[in-house]
Amino acid sequence: MNYDCIVIGAGMSGLAAGIRLAMFDKKVVILEKHSIPGGLNSYYQRKNFEAGGVRQFDVGLHALTNFIKKGEKGKPFSKLLKQLRLSYDDFKLHPQTYSKIQFPGLSLKFSNDFELLESEVRSNFPKEIENFIRLVETVKNFNELDLTLGYRSSRETLNQIIKDELLTEMLLCPLLIYGSAWEDDMDFAQFVIMFKSLYFEGFGRPEGGVRTIISLLMKKFEEVGGQIRFRTPVSEIKTNQKGVAIGVVANNEELLAPVILSSIGYPETVRLTNKFPSDKVPRTGAMTFLESIFVYDKKIPLTQNDSTIVFYNNSPKYSYRPAVNYFDSSSAVVCFPDNYETHHTAGEGTVRVTYMANYDQWKNLSREEYDMKKETVGNSAIDLVKKLVPEFHGKLLFKDIFSPLTIEKYTWHMNGTVYGSVDKTRDGRTPVPNLFIIGTDQGFLGIVGSILSGISMANLHGLMNGSEA
Amino acid sequence: MTASQVRQIVIDIIADIAPDEDVTTLVDNKSLREQLDLDSMDFLDIVMELRKRHKVEVPQEDYPKLASLESCVAYLSPKLA
Lengths: 469, 81
Fold this sequence. Notes:
The structure holds 2 protein chains of 2 kinds. Chain A is built from 13 helices and 19 strands. By secondary structure, chain A is an alpha/beta fold. The longest helix of chain A has 22 residues. The radius of gyration of chain A is 22 Å and the shape is globular. By secondary structure, chain B is mostly helical. In chain B, 57% of the residues lie in helices and 0% in strands. Chain B has 4 helices and no strands. In chain B, helix 1 crosses helix 3 and helix 1 packs across helix 4. Classes of the chains: A alpha/beta, B mainly alpha. At the A-B interface, helix 2 and helix 13 of A face helix 3 of B.
């Protein structure tokens, strides 16, 4: 079969790229290994044995970053709406209440109104407020979308502006764990993307969770005439004698196209082609996570906990690196997905707790040890929830824990990485001509970032033939 | 095709790619970017829609010629004739 473009992976970036290409009459097919779309931001369900029916769960999505109000212009989310011809109302976004960065004896709140964070810094770090405002100006004036930027350490840049290390640690904490492939640091362009998307713009959650976003993208892709094949793993990216990518092999079928966009990760893509120069193979990131999901018989009352997400750390220094001992309980992200501004107050309550993990250690466990270790993680996470919400005495009805191996199994990301490789390719290009990277390893972050990555790479390499306007 | 038809074609496209914008008050000799929230991605879409709907090719070096409604009409009229 011949196509104008083949997209590997039906995650957020693959679907967005597919929509852009099909919208302008390109013959495009998306090949997805899994039986459902979503990639790293997907969903599943489990039977509810007590009450009958099923419970629906999201994987990945705690929050949609880059929140805007209806009608706001010039923001990443508004660009996404225009480029995909989607309407704001379709996302049914509910804003967060507020979130907080909780360190020993001190917390900083932030919400979708940047003034809250600024006033929190002003009252908790009065000596740093002018430096903080300088940092904000630096972030505002930085062009993070410049595709030619190289790596620049965020810590080094921050240390030149902020003097109090505790403030640096606290500001970095959510930004690192919500997007960094690098240990204890991140590329400054990604810092800026994250700073804007979390602190300037904030969090929202679509009603219905990640399914709402995925079904919007799927519906649009079908409307514009794209094709999608599930359970269709790509086993090889084919190149011609000159080393130019010309197509793929999937389910033993050869599919040809002059443009191939791969969203499955940079190292994962490289594995599929034998024409890749061995000295340029991108490194697999080390950051992987464990997530526990708990369902209680009732919601945690807003009087006991009104924050949407807590970025918890139990020491003045924030360590963002693979856990030394299976999982790191010294820090966590605790998400209360019921605490978005919605109307429903009855029904079951959910809490999600994310810890940093260590892939190699989990990989080497026997089945029995693996189950026992997961139990330990679950207990630790329950203790943390009790610590954060001591007055809450809900009955635990359901728990589920995913490990780095679960992530690897369902997303095929090597070593269970979530934020991909530490080697990004910002313009999407690879050493193999006509093969391009979209999604996490192109370097935009979060759901909005992934979607914009798919859009901008499809524009650049699929619609404009690689030269920027 | 008359100048006003060409003008309408451009306005229809802008209205579709930027549904939140008011296209009824556009001043013809002022740049579109000054009057509307359009970025380079949107200009790409104007070009892509011209190709899709009217089979008009706008090479990249000609993008500046789409700056205002007036310049759009001048540039596109011969191509849409």
